[in-house]
Design goal:
45% helix; elongated; mainly alpha; Arc Repressor Mutant, subunit A
């Protein structure tokens, strides 16, 4: 199917001419994102299909989960969130409440800074009796 022809603007705003030919068509190809494009549910469904006899390749295609991820999980590798859960200082519900607060503030046009989010998280920890400063170490 041929690409639609690019139409130049009808107005010549500030007398700027279009330096590109009329048939120039821009395509954007997205590279692989560092974030996973699948959910834990999809991983579990793919693993269930594999254990019931479907090939890893077919389950990978069907559920959109990389074969390498499925092979690793079959060998016993934990999901990233579970593997590092012991290192997290906030509980899942506390983290969800913090994220909700950030979203509410952003919706009000008052998005908190990184420092404000850290301070809020530190207040939550202090209320639990955890006075260690936040950070990697």
């Amino acid at each position: 199917m041929p690409h639609p022809q690019h139409q130049p603007p009808t107005s010549n705003y500030h007398n700027i001419s279009n330096p590109y030919p009329n048939n120039l068509f821009f395509s954007v190809y997205l590279s692989h994102s560092p974030m996973a494009q699948y959910t834990e549910y999809e991983v579990n469904r793919a693993l269930a299909d594999i254990t019931s006899g479907q090939s890893t390749r077919d389950a990978s295609s069907k559920w959109g989960v990389p074969r390498s991820t499925l092979r690793s999980r079959l060998k016993g590798t934990q999901p990233r969130a579970a593997a590092f859960s012991e290192l997290q200082r906030l509980s899942i519900s506390q983290e969800a409440k913090l994220a909700s607060w950030v979203q509410i503030q952003a919706d009000l046009g008052l998005a908190p800074t990184h420092q404000q989010i850290r301070e809020f998280a530190q207040r939550i920890l202090n209320a639990m009796g955890d006075t260690q400063p936040l950070g990697k170490r």
